[in-house]
Amino acid sequence: MVDDARFAFIVEWYEEIAARTRTFQFFYYSKSKSIEMFDIKTRKMFLKTNLSACPIELQDLYIGASINVLGRQLKIVEYGDEFTKRKLMSRLERTLGFIKPDSLDKMGDIIDAIYDRGLNIAKLRMCRIGQSDAFRFYQDQTDLGAMNAKVNFLTSGPVLAFELVGDNAVQRWQEMIGPTDPAKARAEAASSLRARFGKDNLHNAVHGADGPSSAAREIEFFFPSSQKQVFTNCVLGSGSTCCVVKPHAIKAGNAGKIINAIQDAGFTVNTIQMFTLDKANAEEFYEVYKGVVHEYPGMVNELASGPVIAMEITGKNSEQVPMAFRELCGPMDP
């Protein structure tokens, strides 16, 4: 790869003032971390800047990703040229994993391991799978007895599903989780997730797609492109509080550590989902701080700068959860 190679993408930006979606050519220079944007409709340069103060890394750029450039939330919708497609399609592979119902108390450790191995979590959600959907997920199983056991286990409680993106993601995730049998994993891959957290062939902590084609099918199963809500969520809606892991903490790979701290303090993560907020939604979320704290504009920009992880937190004493959790978080100023 040549120095300061240029990568091209097609991005969309929703312009709030004009209430319209604009489409741009987006050029990213990998060495200088600079970008250029050209309006496709007018064929004129729209923006040129160096992002050294808040760099975007090449691994952040993939189809479906949202990035924030100078307060503008851009969604990458396709590759902009054959060079970029050829270089990145082989590098940024996608795969699907999920944490099984009896290992959700280990989600912090598992998410931490994912970031430590250099994989990105592009999507993440906790949900409950119904029996008919579980049979659909395991439709390729030939052993009826094994299928029934897997379906019963999968539907016994919530699962935490995630789409992983990275170089050779399918194989790397398979290596991370280890052999299906945790006993074999402990003998052959002692540091693997199944060796650490699995109990037996059925209760083996995590799932991983076994190839690119199954990864594509399973990603569509948990994160359908139609955006239709397929599965039941796990929200209680009372006796709980909300926790949001901010973009800078996710980018630094600290999401798993934060979840561990929450669980170690005796709280339960009742449900969790990753998503991206546009500036208008970030402003609405922080509306109570508008005109009250001078950091408000920066708070909004940070919240809209990348993906966030929102969690519903519960505890033993539901009435005390909000106050107790605020004490755990500490003052706003670190």
TrEMBL record:
Subcellular location: Cytoplasm, Cytoskeleton, Cilium axoneme
One GO cellular component, as annotated: axonemal microtubule
Keyword entries, A-Z: Cell projection, Cytoplasm, Cytoskeleton
Broad class of where this protein is predominantly found: cytoplasm
Gene Ontology annotations of biological process type: CTP biosynthetic process; GTP biosynthetic process; UTP biosynthetic process
UniProt KW Cytoplasm keyword: yes
Coiled-coil blocks: none
Signal peptide segment: none
UniProt keyword Cytoplasm present: yes
Family indicated by similarity: Belongs to the NDK family.
Name assigned to this protein: DM10 domain-containing protein
